[in-house]
Amino acid sequence: MRISRLFSPTPIARDRALPQEHCLEGQAAHYLQHVLRSRPDDELVIFDGLGGEFQARVLAHKRHTTIVELLSHLAEDRATEHPFRLGLALLRGDRMDYALRKATELGVTHIQLLRTERCEVNPSGSKLDKRLQHWRGVTYSACEQCGLNLPPELSAPCSLAQWLSHSMQGCKLVLHPTGRPGVLTGSSATARPNGFVLATGPEGGFSEQEMAMFEEQGFLAWSLGPRILRAETAPIVALAIAQHWTGELG
Ligand code: SAM
Predict the structure, then answer these.
(1) Separation of CA 177 and ligand 1 centre (Å)
(2) Is 58 exposed, middle or buried (0-12, 13-18, 19+ CB in 10 A)?
């Protein structure tokens, strides 16, 4: 029987001996009670994003919470060794969810949402708060599925200029159809970077001015071939190539 993995937004105390009781609430409790219809003694794995995972068993369901007993801890994160930052232009609806889910599965460590000139969506205020909560939930759900115990940090949207004003280490790449193919081969193949910073554009692409901003900050424009990929496809292809190049994907 597949043992379910659940993210606990409530941090788990590390200074208390195991076994210890832990209270799951919100979506986790709802999932256990109404989707899995779990019963006492059912096994599960709990992670809180602070490192590793806990083998646990259901103790009791309450009205809106479920009490579990944490039995043992496994200090395994299945995370990418090197920092992998993704600058992701805001996308519509499901496309955003798809890009966030796949980027999480592929080991991105930090996602900076970007408001670029040609973004077709530009949520703000309470609408943005709700979207950020939903998007963070998408990354947690992707972690539950893929076994990653350290969800990527997801930063609220900022302008491209703001993002580029931060000093970022590693191999800096911006996806653009007119870029160079194979930026990860040839001479650069020898110097394994101490991380990646990858920027990918909205459905309308990056403007010439934005590409000039990237170039000023030392980003290499990277072409993923002769066809125009969808905005949610391109980052996944690039991440897979980069993670294969580092050896992470075998
Ligand atoms: N007409 C737009 C352009 O010229 O950039 C197409 C935008 S495409 C639908 C959305 C984003 O996916 C682009 O901003 C780029 O980051 C990435 N992308 C799509 N196809 C690509 C390719 N062949 N090479 C590199 N990046 C690509």
Answers:
(1) 5
(2) buried
HSE value, Cβ hemisphere, 13 Å, CA-based, for 184? 24
Q: Could you tell me the distance, in angstroms and rounded to a whole number, from the CA of residue 156 to the centre of ligand 1?
A: 23
CA-nearest residue for atom 7, ligand 1, is 205
The pocket around ligand 1, CB under 6 angstroms, is made up of: 175-177, 179, 200-201, 203, 205-206, 223-225, 227-231, 234
CB 26 within 8 A of CB 17: no
How far is Cα 45 from Cα 6, in angstroms, rounded to an integer?
Answer: 6
Q: Nearest CA to 236 among 98, 54, 40, 85?
A: 98
167 phi and psi angles, rounded to 5 deg: -80, 125
Q: Tell which atom from ligand 1 comes closest to the C-alpha of 230.
A: 9
Model confidence over 97-152: pLDDT tens digits?
A: 999 999 999 999 999 999 999 999 999 999 999 999 999 999 999 999 999 999 99
Res 187 pLDDT > 60: no
Query: What dihedral do alpha carbons 197, 202, 203, 204 form, nearest 10°?
Result: -110
Domains of the chain (ranges; CATH) run 4-74 (2.40.240.20), 84-246 (3.40.1280.10)
Distance 206 CA to ligand 1 centre (A): 8
